Automatic annotation (TrEMBL):
GO terms for cellular component: cytoplasm. Substrate binds at residues 6-8, 138, 173, 194-195. The active site is at 85 (electrophile), 133 (proton acceptor). This is Triosephosphate isomerase.
Length: 215
């Protein structure tokens, strides 16, 4: 299972979380990546943890003020990028162009969708992975895997029907090892989470507890 921790714009210390994630990944053998704010990509990557951007823009180099270039995210040390997060939704054509931009920069891609229909649609664009996240469960205490297991099962089926080479992750409310186990049982090969780590008093302990069933 891949554990992708999105720090969003939470007021945590991205370096402390990144160092904790690197230590837990090394000790457990579980693949863990951190997606910090764009301004923190290089500092987070310098810790040695696998680092992802939260978004890259559909454009390449040029007159695009305020954009996040895939090429510069990669140069800062990012190895992958989220796209179309529920909190940063994109037009379909821009998702397509951002996947292309990420590919040019050798960034792995994970495109989010709210439901199985959206997951099928974005899987057709050829990302490396997709992540299903019901917006109403994001930031809550109940994991998507227990609150709405069918949405995960159906998202796995929707992606597989389009392209069985696309990995399917799930997210929203995931914070415990049991949540991770339940996600795996539903066919997900990774989880996308945020508040369970970024808002934890002790992010390292939260990550250790999360991967404990896999270690
Ligand atoms: O990107 C992460 C997801 O939106 C899940 O957030 P959450 O773990 O706080 O529910």
């Amino acid at each position: 299972m891949f554990v992708l921790v999105n720090l969003k714009a939470y007021p945590c210390d991205p370096i402390a979380v990144a160092e904790a994630a690197r230590a837990v990944a090394e000790a457990s053998g579980v693949r863990i990546a951190i997606a910090p704010q764009a301004a923190d990509l290089a500092a987070v990557a310098d810790t040695g943890v696998e680092t992802w951007a939260q978004h890259v823009s559909p454009n390449g180099y040029g007159s695009h003020t305020g954009s996040t270039l895939a090429e510069r995210a990669a140069a800062a040390g990012a190895e992958g990028t989220l796209l179309n997060h529920s909190e940063n939704r994109m037009k379909l054509a821009d998702i397509d162009a951002s996947i292309e931009a990420a590919r040019r920069a050798d960034l792995e891609t994970c495109v989010c969708g709210n439901n199985p229909a959206q997951i099928g649609a974005v899987a057709a664009l050829g990302p490396d992975s997709v992540a299903v996240e019901p917006p109403e469960l994001i930031g809550g205490d109940v994991s998507v895997a227990s609150a709405d297991p069918d949405i995960v099962r159906d998202a796995v089926a929707a992606a597989e029907a389009v392209d069985d080479g696309v990995d399917v992750y799930c997210g929203a409310g995931i914070s415990t090892g049991d949540d991770l186990d339940a996600a795996a049982d539903l066919g997900a090969s990774g989880v996308l989470l945020a508040s369970g780590v970024a808002k934890a008093d002790d992010p390292k302990a939260a990550l250790e507890a999360l991967v404990e069933p896999l270690a």
